[in-house]
Specification:
InterPro entries: Tnp_DDE_dom. It holds the Pfam family DDE_Tnp_1_6. It comes from Streptomyces albireticuli. The protein is of the alpha+beta class. Strands 1-2-3 form a three-stranded antiparallel sheet. Strand 1 and strand 2 form a beta hairpin.
Amino acid sequence: MTGPPWKPTLGDSHPRLSVLFPRKVCRECDDRLECTGNTGGRGRHVFLLPQPQQEIQTRVRHEQKTGQ
């Protein structure tokens, strides 16, 4: 199975990538509860920043969490 399509969109008037994981894919995933937190078996819809910004955000969040 391949991943869901990533579609360019706008969120808060800024470029984002929209990734929609279908319900069937989420239901079959062993990590569903940790990932989505839902027990109803709904799919997951994720909005990501463009790659350079997403990498910065991920790094900064890691640094804040670890105190580095």
